[in-house]
Design a protein that fits this description.
Helix content: 25-40%
Strand content: 15-25%
Order of helices and strands: EEHEHEHEHEEEEHHEEEHEHHEHEE
Structural class: alpha/beta
Distance between the termini: 12 Å
Bound molecules: zinc ion
CATH class of the largest domain: Alpha Beta
Length: 307
């Protein structure tokens, strides 16, 4: 499970930072990639990476501001020419369906793969046997969502040597024990799965928030997250500006990470007013409040190790 930053800037594209798009690479887990937002030229950014558009399985749009959205129709259209055959699901606020269908129909674009568009509300928006995704509303003037991606715990590994020592012969009985069934052997010996299966592997939690002011819902979405990706459009001294423009400061992001008990925070949505050195100052500000903070950069990849 890796995070790859395709665009980490705020508002308009800049040379150092393109507008927002974040890839959650789930190649080992499910052979696919989930995208969060698709600002203009996201597909151009992808060209500089090893990401294969045909692997994109889900696209979560946080809100309908152009710097998070204008790259979506082009990305969807090009995927048809890049070997994309599997279904893509786009999740986003009300209006996302019109935006996509009108863009594609006016430009007479026909996709070679099935496209599902889900206009979301708060709460559970996706669940399968591996992941649960929850959405919550933030505070940004227009509906802006945060997404909490929870990986389900994996069952512990079977302690094969211990089973052999206990006289259990390999076969379907191993599967039963792994699935938590208590098994009685032919000699009457009872095998309790608790003694022969290791501890479950805890799933990871990734929280990716759309643009927002400091808000309570951000804390709830980020609770105990292994990684929180939070915007930091303004420096710590610009709280008034941040409030007026519905954005956050470095300290806001760090306070959310601290209150939510996150393991790691990564700042993104960095304004082009901040050059490389100024961005490092933003990072230092956040670290005053929450030590384990990093700052996103275009093309930076970080892995979220298993627990
Ligand atoms: Zn934005
Ligand atoms: Zn916005």
């Amino acid at each position: 499970m890796n995070i790859f930053y395709l665009g980490t800037g705020a508002g308009i594209p800049a040379k150092l930072r393109n507008v927002t798009s974040i890839a959650l690479k789930l190649l080992e887990e499910r052979g696919t990639i989930w995208l969060f937002d698709a600002g203009e030229a996201t597909q151009h950014q992808i060209l500089h990476t090893s990401i294969k558009p045909r692997r994109i399985e889900k696209i979560f749009i946080t809100h309908l501001h152009g710097d998070h959205l204008y790259g979506l129709p082009g990305l969807l259209a090009s995927r048809s020419f890049q070997g994309g055959e599997s279904e893509v699901t786009v999740y986003g606020p009300a209006g996302i369906k019109d935006y996509i269908t009108i863009s594609l129909s006016v430009s007479q674009t026909y996709l070679t793969y099935p496209l599902k568009i889900v206009e979301i509300e708060e709460g559970l928006i996706f669940e399968d046997d591996q992941f649960v995704v929850e959405a919550g509303l933030l505070s940004h003037g227009i509906p802006s969502y945060g997404y909490r991606v929870v990986e389900k715990d994996k069952p512990g590994t079977l302690l094969v040597e211990k089973l052999l020592e206990a006289g259990v012969q390999p076969g379907p009985v191993f599967g039963k024990i792994k699935n938590g069934e208590t098994v009685t052997l032919e000699d009457g010996k009872v095998i309790n799965p608790i003694d022969f299966v290791g501890p479950p592997q805890k799933g990871r939690i990734i929280t990716i928030l759309g643009d927002t002011r400091y808000c309570e819902n951000a804390i709830r979405l980020a609770e105990n997250a292994d990684l929180l990706i939070h915007e930091a459009t303004f420096s710590k001294g610009e709280g008034k500006l941040a409030y007026d423009y519905f954005h956050s400061t470095t300290h806001h992001a760090a306070e959310i990470a601290s209150l939510a008990g996150c393991k790691q925070l990564c700042l993104t949505h960095i304004s082009s007013r901040y050059d490389r050195n100024a961005a490092l100052e933003l990072l230092a500000e956040a670290q005053e409040v929450f030590t384990n903070t990093d700052i996103a950069e275009d093309f930076k990849e970080i892995s979220i190790p298993s627990k």
